[in-house]
């Protein structure tokens, strides 16, 4: 009787400890405690690499603070999206903390760093490296870093994202469904870009690899 009591207590203790330590991999691969917090892996890929053809973004190697901000912005509606809003709403703060920390520690794709001084021939490269200052459009690398690899927690990487995803975000700013950027930094830029420019600059950043720019 006594033995049974202690082993039962042990079991209860072990299961309550497990409930406290949020398992980031379980959230990513199986979803959160709330069934509406769907498994991230379904859309963001086995290693957080995203799904280019579907326009699902890469999360591997993004700043944890940037991702936490985005999940909060989906929740508040500053970044309106019918897929991510219910998922962000269903995640607990502990699950958000765990899964974003885990994803931030994954490797980002390697790209050759191309800065302002590099040659720029195509429309995409010119916007990325020179901007269009006559229309008050700064070069993207001024904020997003050489090759758009991202800078700190505020400026996310553009390299390693698909052209579909990049152009969908620029269009979201143009349409006003994404308005989560401080001081309208991106909205101001996106509204000045033409359709052809959005296509070209998105294709440019999506084409970057270890050898340089393929576009
Ligand atoms: C059914 C598909 C789907 C699932 C499941 C999913 N996502 Fe997403 N996620 C998306 C899409 C689509 C976007 C881009 C939405 C937009 O345009 O704003 C996105 C965007 C994001 C972003 C913003 C990335 C950026 O670069 O700004 C984060 C962070 C994110 N998801 C985290 C998660 C986490 C964490 C989970 C799992 C708990 C998850 N997602 C599950 C489809 C999904
Ligand atoms: C003045 C600084 C600045 C410049 C210049 C700039 N950006 Fe941004 N960009 C930002 C900030 C800040 C964010 C993140 C906003 C947020 O908090 O969600 C961002 C986010 C983005 C995103 C969304 C990435 C994601 O993971 O969802 C895209 C796409 C983007 N910028 C494209 C561009 C392009 C293309 C250019 C050049 C034409 C450019 N940006 C120039 C500041 C800038």
UniProtKB/TrEMBL annotation:
Protein keywords: Heme, Iron, Metal-binding, Signal
Keyword field contains Signal: yes
Coiled coil: none
GO cellular component: periplasmic space
Domain of life the protein comes from: Bacteria
PROSITE patterns given in the database record: CYTC
Signal peptide residue numbers: 1-21
Domain Cytochrome c: residue ranges: 11-107, 126-209
Gene Ontology molecular function: electron transfer activity; heme binding; iron ion binding
Residues given in the record as heme c 2 binding sites: 140, 143-144, 186
Post-translational modification: Binds 2 heme c groups covalently per subunit.
Record has Signal as a keyword: yes
Annotated heme c 1 binding sites: 40, 43-44, 84
The name this protein goes by in its record: Cytochrome c4
């Amino acid at each position: 009787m006594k033995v049974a009591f202690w082993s039962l207590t042990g079991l209860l203790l072990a299961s309550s400890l497990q409930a406290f330590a949020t398992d980031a991999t379980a959230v990513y691969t199986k979803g959160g405690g709330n069934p509406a917090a769907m498994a991230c892996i379904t859309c963001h890929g086995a290693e957080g690499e995203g799904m280019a053809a579907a326009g699902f973004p890469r999360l591997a190697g993004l700043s944890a603070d940037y991702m936490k901000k985005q999940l909060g912005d989906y929740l508040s509606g500053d970044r309106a999206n019918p897929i991510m809003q219910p998922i962000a709403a269903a995640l607990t703060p502990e699950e958000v903390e765990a899964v974003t920390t885990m994803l931030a520690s994954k490797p980002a794709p390697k790209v050759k760093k191309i800065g302002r001084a590099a040659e720029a021939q195509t429309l995409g490269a010119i916007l990325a490296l020179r901007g269009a200052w006559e229309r008050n459009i700064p070069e993207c690398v001024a904020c997003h870093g050489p090759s758009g690899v991202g800078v700190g927690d505020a400026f996310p990487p553009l390299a390693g994202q698909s052209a579909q995803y990049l152009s969908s975000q620029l269009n979201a700013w143009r349409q006003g469904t994404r308005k989560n950027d401080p001081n309208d930094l991106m909205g101001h830029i996106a509204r000045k870009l033409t359709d052809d420019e959005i296509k070209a600059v998105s294709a440019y950043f999506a084409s970057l690899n270890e050898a340089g720019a393929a576009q």
